[in-house]
Amino acid sequence: MRDVAVVGFAQAPAVRETHGTTNGVEMLVPVFHEVLGALGLTKSDIGFWCSGSSDYVAGRAFSFIAAVDAIGAFPPINESHVEADAAWACYEAWVKIQTGEVDVALVYGFGKSSAGKLRRVMTMQLDPYTVAPLWPDSLSVAGLQARAGLDRGAWTEQQMAEVAARSRADAKSNPRAQVKGDVSVEDLLARPYLADPLRRHDCAPITDGAAALVLAAGDRARELAERPAWITGIAHRVDSANLGGRDLTASPSTAGAAKAAGLDHKVDVAELHAPFTHQELVLRGALGLNGSRINPSGGALCGNPMFSAGLIRIGEAARQISSGQADRALAHATSGPALQHNLVCLMEGRD
Questions:
Q1: Which GO terms describe its molecular function (predicted)?
Q2: What is the mean pLDDT of residues 250-266?
Q3: pLDDT for 55-76, tens place per residue?
């Protein structure tokens, strides 16, 4: 296996609404400029480009082709795309480097959720025969999951509010966060329900945004970064799409992905892609993260750009290593309803 590391990361500000097109070009151009400029690279130095986005969110077919305009028509590029969060594009780029065909890859993801009714659009990922015709939106599905855990005694509304309060406090140091600030757990619990048992603070905001990171192999990574975040394991697993066919209070696919990636020791930092407070509690249990710092960036609860929020978790975890604040880090990404599909990426610094 080739040694591969994250050597660069950049993110557009997470905001409620942008005024650009749904192909993401206006968000991606400055992100590319930032990540390539910081590394002293040009577009011609990138051996492979891979993106993650969704035509459902963009509202038209093959929207990712229009996004390539952000790269430019010349020179010709080696490019691919996944119809998923760009964390899975990162996985594809890691595999591409493993083949030995390229040494440097750029991964990017984008989503302009403000263009439509996101929470109803997400209904389209459900079983098209028995569930989607009922039109449960993403809040309703997450509410069913949260209620299952409360009724089972797996977590409490107090614990859910503690997740929100900690996330918003940590996000104060993240200039790209959409939601941040100090708030007490008691104040959060006094607020009304949005979708019982979920209050507004239990749910990630609707966000427009984009992100990009650069992967490099071996000596090329050492040339580009003073302290690369070396990927020691990356894997993904999926649970049943049938909401009634699995225990919604657990995430065996997350545990399976972590085992396949080689999680066998404590990590200093974990960036978890949990768009709902109770989902962080599910993930912490599946990963056994006792004593690890969770989401120092504030996490998806403080900015959740569709199809790049998972990639951002990898970039933020890598940033913790590159800055010397952590030696071992875990990044997690999710896709599908109620934590259906999960990816785990383990990274470490080597001094």
A1: acyltransferase activity, transferring groups other than amino-acyl groups
A2: 96
A3: 888 888 888 888 999 998 888 8
Q: How far apart are CA 285 and CA 144, in angstroms?
A: 19
**Whether domain 134-204+230-349 has CATH 3.30.300.20:** no
Quote the tokens at residue 75: 């020179």
Residue ranges of the chain assigned to CATH 3.40.47.10: 4-118+206-229, 134-204+230-349
In Å, what is the CA distance from 118 to each residue of 84, 223, 246? 15, 42, 25
Q: What is the per-residue pLDDT across 183-223, written as a single tens digit (0 to 9) for each?
A: 999 999 999 999 999 999 999 999 999 999 999 999 999 99
User: Torsion-angle region of residue 62: left (phi > 0), alpha (psi -120 to 50) or beta?
Assistant: left
Question: Per CATH, which fold does 4-118+206-229 belong to?
Answer: Peroxisomal Thiolase; Chain A, domain 1 (3.40.47)
Burial readout 103-129 (b: 16 or more C-beta within 10 A, e: otherwise): bbbbbbbbbbbbbeebbebbbebbeee
- DSSP character at residue 206: P
Rounded to 10 degrees, the C-alpha dihedral 346/39/13/73 comes to -110
In whole angstroms, what is the distance from residue 330 CA to residue 332 CA? Answer: 7
Reading the block at residue 343, the tokens are 């990816």
Mean pLDDT of all residues in 139-153 = 97
Q: Is 233 helix (H, G, I), strand (E, B) or coil?
A: strand
- 228 within 8 A of 6, measured Cβ to Cβ: yes
Distance CA 326, CA 244 (A): 39
